[in-house]
TrEMBL record:
<dbReference type="InterPro" id="IPR036860">
    <property type="entry name" value="SH2_dom_sf"/>
</dbReference>
<dbReference type="Pfam" id="PF21354">
    <property type="entry name" value="STAT_linker"/>
</dbReference>
<feature type="domain" description="SH2">
    <location>
        <begin position="587"/>
        <end position="687"/>
    </location>
</feature>
<keyword id="KW-0238">DNA-binding</keyword>
<dbReference type="InterPro" id="IPR036535">
    <property type="entry name" value="STAT_N_sf"/>
</dbReference>
<keyword id="KW-0804">Transcription</keyword>
<feature type="region of interest" description="Disordered">
    <location>
        <begin position="728"/>
        <end position="754"/>
    </location>
</feature>
<dbReference type="InterPro" id="IPR000980">
    <property type="entry name" value="SH2"/>
</dbReference>
<dbReference type="Pfam" id="PF01017">
    <property type="entry name" value="STAT_alpha"/>
</dbReference>
<keyword id="KW-0597">Phosphoprotein</keyword>
<dbReference type="InterPro" id="IPR015988">
    <property type="entry name" value="STAT_TF_CC"/>
</dbReference>
<dbReference type="Pfam" id="PF00017">
    <property type="entry name" value="SH2"/>
</dbReference>
<keyword id="KW-0010">Activator</keyword>
<dbReference type="InterPro" id="IPR001217">
    <property type="entry name" value="STAT"/>
</dbReference>
<dbReference type="InterPro" id="IPR013800">
    <property type="entry name" value="STAT_TF_alpha"/>
</dbReference>
<dbReference type="InterPro" id="IPR048988">
    <property type="entry name" value="STAT_linker"/>
</dbReference>
<keyword id="KW-0727">SH2 domain</keyword>
Amino acid sequence: MAQWAKLQQLQGEALKQVQNVYGDHFPLEVRFVLAQWIEDKPWSELDPDNPNHENYAARLAVSLIQELEKKASSEDLNFIMKLKLDEAAVYFRDHYSSNPQQLIKVIKNCLQAEHNAIQLAENPCVHVPNQILGISHIHQEISQHLDKLKKKTQETEEEVRRMQQEQESFVIQYQESAKRQAQIQQLTNQPNTHNNVEMLSKLQREKELLDDALRQRATSLVQQRQALADRQQDTLMQVHALQTRVLDDELIKWKRNQQLSGNGVIFENNLDQIQEWCELLVEIIWQNRQQIKRVEMLCSQLPINSPMGNILERFRSLNSDITGLLSSLVTSTFVIEKLPPQVMKTNTRFTATVRLLVGGKLNVHMTPPQVRVTIISEAQANSLLKNKVGMTEASGEILNNTGTMEYHQATRQLSVSFRNMQLRKIKRAEKKGTESVMDEKFSLLFQSEFKVGGEELVFRVWTLSLPVVVIVHGNQEPHAWATVTWDNAFAEPGRVPFAVPDKVPWPQMAEVLNMKFHAACGQGLSAENLQYLATKGFRNSQIQDFSNMMITWSQFCKEPLPDRNFTFWEWFYAIMKVTREHLRVLWNDGVVIGFIGRRNAEEMLLKRPSGTFLLRFSDSELGGVTIAWVAEDPQQETHEVFMLQPFTSRDFSIRTLADRINDLKHLLYLYPDRAKDQAFGKYYTPFTENQPPSSNGYVKPVLVTHIPGLTGMVSGLDSFPGTPQSYFPPHSPDTGGYIDPSSMPGSGDQPMHAGAAVSDMDYDLLGMDLMSGDMDVPVDFSTINVSDLVAYTKSE
């Protein structure tokens, strides 16, 4: 059932939650008339912040507006609906034509809200993102505390208003008392006539009554001021506790999860929910601050001595405290919503987005602030945190590094997206010991300044990105990702930039590798896979329990593996890369064992029938995948395990692994006993003998993998009918354990294997052998008539 059809079945709170995400920025009526069109588009695959998606986003926005105008002109709709759709089309053209990415964000947000509401309705126990439905117990507590503080602030407002009225009445009575005093003074200077004496007596009695009332009002005002100060003090304590919970717990947790997402951990992005809390907090703080300032002004207008001390000073102190809370909230909510790439190549375009969570509530967009981006070193980041001021010196040059924050009415977000930044130059620090440029960490510093409250308060805000490793060449990428992966996984909140431990427990490292592999390849690593990785990482296959062992940074990515010129991380990274790019579906289908040693593979295969094979990752070649199979030696009547020269990404870009397995007819069963075609048949590339010529008139050849001379080695099973029988005499595998026909006559020094490069592999093109086993010496092609050769080929 389509999502829109399911949506119409919602009721109660779930339906209300969905309705709340629609509005003038994207009316529900538009969702209704374009339901099928909207759901046919690949929104989940579209990233509005990705520069590579900009053109498609623009075309999609134009297409949506055209569809909307087409629907609005339809005769099937009533007059009111047509008006609504016309208004929406005009609004979309005015607001989204120059910013189609914003329209994509709005639609994705609406669809996600629908999806989560439907999930909750269909299965109340299902886990859905908290930012949409707010079902988390912790989140409910925060919302309840905010409601209480909001109510308390309203009650305080009433008390301030009553105290102000009381003070105004006091002033009026005081003026009356002063008037009586003036009259008494005037009568005192006049002759003591009977009338004057009576009038004087009357005025003195009235003044005494007024003075008694004034003393009572003064006492009442002092008590009210003290009560308000106590109440404000209590409110500040509660606000401070709740703000600490939101900023130091929830926002820090969001930042940590954002960092872990760089290692493949699923990121539950609840920044919108955090913004909602921060907006309510800043509203409460601002209202209480205004109340404190009003009482402070009233106290200064009418100073009244109190036995409890100077009440005016107390309110000034409260004003300072609450302004500090406001400053902390504003500066802490200047966050990087979309991080720049953590491995950054010079002269390569990249993007980033920063957002001020409380910007909308403080009307910062009325005077849009500028944001500037610079790149700073680890030492500069340390200095920045110690001095708590912005940096003027940079460690590199970034193009297009300034932008203006904009307020998006539809999402209530004040943000700026940098879409065309480019790092042109970088200044590096001196290296010590074994340090390399891929170990050096930088950070992007985002800075801005703005005023609020009629320019009463000036805020200078800044925030640092996660550590960035700068490279200049693609071959530096694996080591750079090692630095980033270790930092993302083991950085402690509140650390000194960018300190990380130099060794960590293996179980933590295993979890990181599992997450990385799962994110890249679609399925994680089994306990057996992780056990094998532990033996590689610690260079010890004898230990069975690694749970209490610590793996060091050097073991992870500095020290080469035994008898190899690459590190553990380089080996793992290459495997992850080839699996992601070429073996993803096979890995997810469970047909690739992969992480298994040569000896274990041999022991497993020797217990199976001839023709049984498995796929394992090469120990000796980065990103290599080898086929190990068991075959019967007819001369010695024994079983032997053979390893094919490893395939790499270059090979798979020419012919897929599944097709190569299909080519090798001696491979019969995927370990332990699954028929080859059953396991890989659905991944074979379809092929028919009579393929028509392509549009350019050429007939496309088919590359087929085969192993020359395999007949004598594997009990008469041939990898391909055209294989020469005398080409590859029986022999044991070479010292590397791979089948490598480098000892064949005429092969010279060039090893031949079932790989990708034409110089390294014997391909059979449409069944025609291109090489002859008798070609021991070079052939003089000048003596051959090419026309005769072509004619001969055709006649065959």
